[in-house]
Specification:
Distance between the termini: 30 Å
Strand content: 5-15%
Bound molecules: iron/sulfur cluster
Helix content: 25-40%
Strand order of the largest sheet: 13-12-1-15-14
């Protein structure tokens, strides 16, 4: 057993309103600089849609993540030892500017400085790369809310496994549905970006699992840009180095949630510690696609298990960190309730950001009315879902529909349970039956409701003590200092 600690995340997609506040918060802090204009360390996509960069999920083209070879070993899709060397000088498997977009600004000064004339002055768009006037033809959320559009939604890579009839159904106007998918770096436990770097500039921080790029060591080869299947590494064309989401570690180290979490209007984001057994990652990530979600859950360890605690301590994980792991909202959503699922686990990077799949686009077309949720037919409505379970399974469970269905059933059961209590228009016996079939209990439903609907900020973000507190606790014991250099009552390391 080799227990490591990871600051992990859950995004609850039913709560995302697609406001992009998270993206703007991140941009203002981290990427509002020359060379970084086109970067969105946090972006929000509409699904079905092609995303940012365009069709990033098309691994035939981009060759991101890991593949299982015939001899059952994991190998980077983007390179072998030999091709890695050759690709230093020519690497076609990368997004170009046309796949992102040409960043622009506006000639704002023209609004003030234009000579007097008959027309209202305008602020024309100008390229932030060439400085020339330009026509805007793409942007980071260009396909926002365009579900059903033949140009964008129809080109979603996740439709590939659907039959022509299933695809056609998704474009019937009365069935059109969409959801938002906010994305940041997953701070993966088996990161292909780290494995691909010829300079050794990428690393996973020992204390909290945050994946970072050492800017002094990066030589701008961009192997990581190809190897990250989520396209969450960007090349800064001014500094000549690659950059990525740093999970706002300077904020974490001072007890604050990352900026995108802090600013999230829908309060969809949860942050907490997971403990995992690094010895089991490779075996788990070699599992066949349909079993990958369960294999990843098995790598995550119970923070109350005595053996896990002993092994964690032997690895230098502090008691304060272990306490944070026991209170982790992420552990509850991912392992205890099995509601939060990894995005595209078939890339085998073992992402440590998990999503609660949204119920609303799935429900809502059962009878003649758009939102006819009869409790007797509740689970059958999943088969007639507006966004098919097959599509959701392509996103969140490597095609295993049972995993997504189980999560959605439990979410539905919680809703009916609360409706029974608060509105009273659903039959008690039916609701109890629904809860049994979904594998949940009234106690668990209350817990899920509480953490989903009415959590305080300290329940959503259970931050472990990092650096500052650890430095304090590594100083001499206060009792030992007593009488020598003055006694100051010092609070122990830890956070509320
Ligand atoms: S999501 Fe982040 S950690 Fe995972 S491969 Fe991409 S850049 Fe690396
Ligand atoms: S701020 Fe929150 S609610 Fe708004 S788009 Fe981002 S994740 Fe969704």
């Amino acid at each position: 057993m080799d227990i490591r600690a990871q600051v992990s995340m859950v995004f609850h997609l039913d709560k995302c309103i697609g406001c992009h506040t998270c993206s703007i918060a991140c941009k203002n802090i981290w990427t509002d600089r020359p060379g970084a204009e086109y970067m969105w360390w946090n972006n929000v996509e509409t699904k079905p849609g092609t995303g940012f960069p365009h069709r990033w999920e098309d691994q035939e083209r981009y060759k991101g993540g890991w593949k299982l070879t015939g001899s059952k070993s994991l190998q980077l899709k983007s390179q072998s030892k030999l091709s890695g060397l050759l690709k230093l000088f020519y690497n076609p498997n990368q997004p170009g500017l046309e796949d992102y977009y040409e960043p622009w600004t506006y000639e704002y000064e023209n609004l003030f400085d234009a000579p007097e004339g008959d027309d209202q002055p305008t602020a024309r768009p100008v390229s932030q790369i060439t400085g020339e006037e330009m026509k805007i033809e793409a942007g980071p959320n260009w396909d926002d809310d365009l579900s059903g559009s033949p140009l964008y939604a129809a080109n979603d890579v996740n439709y590939d496994g659907l039959t022509p009839e299933e695809r056609q159904q998704l474009f019937e106007i009365q069935r059109v549905a969409f959801m938002y998918l906010p994305r940041i770096c997953n701070h993966c436990a088996n990161p292909s970006c780290v494995a691909s770097c010829p300079s050794g500039a990428l690393y996973k921080r020992g204390e909290d699992g945050i994946v970072l790029i050492n800017q002094d060591v990066c030589r701008g080869w961009r192997a990581c840009v190809s190897a990250c299947p989520y396209k969450k590494i960007y090349y800064n064309w001014v500094t000549g180095k690659s950059e990525k989401c740093i999970l706002c570690y300077p904020r974490l180290e001072t007890g604050q949630a990352p900026a995108c979490f802090h600013s999230c209007v829908g309060r969809i984001r949860y942050l907490g510690v997971l403990l995992y057994d690094a010895d089991r990652i490779e075996t788990a990530m070699k599992t066949a696609d349909p079993l990958l979600v369960e294999a990843q859950r098995d790598v995550i360890c119970d923070p109350n298990d005595e053996n896990v605690i002993a092994s964690a301590r032997a690895n230098g994980i502090s008691d304060e960190f272990l306490e944070a792991a026991r209170k982790s909202p992420v552990y509850k959503y991912v392992v205890k309730w099995k509601l939060a699922l990894p995005l595209h686990i078939e890339y085998r990077t073992m992402p440590m950001l998990f999503y609660v799949p949204p119920l609303l686009p799935v429900m809502g077309k059962d009878g003649d009315q758009p939102y006819d949720h009869a409790d007797q037919t509740m689970f059958s409505s999943l088969d007639k879902a507006r966004l098919s379970i097959k599509y959701m399974a392509r996103l969140f469970s490597a095609g295993n529909e049972a995993v997504v269905t189980a999560a959605l059933r439990k979410l539905m059961a919680v809703r009916y349970y609360k409706r029974m209590q608060d509105v009273g228009d659903v039959d008690d016996d039916n609701v109890r039956r629904i809860m049994r079939e979904a594998g949940t209990t009234p106690e668990e439903a209350e817990e899920i409701y509480s953490l989903t609907a009415i959590p305080t900020v300290h329940k959503r973000y259970v931050l472990p003590p990092l650096q500052r507190e650890e430095a304090i606790s590594s100083l001499c014991d206060v009792q030992d200092c007593k009488g020598s250099c003055g006694y100051i009552k010092q609070a122990g390391a830890g956070r509320a």
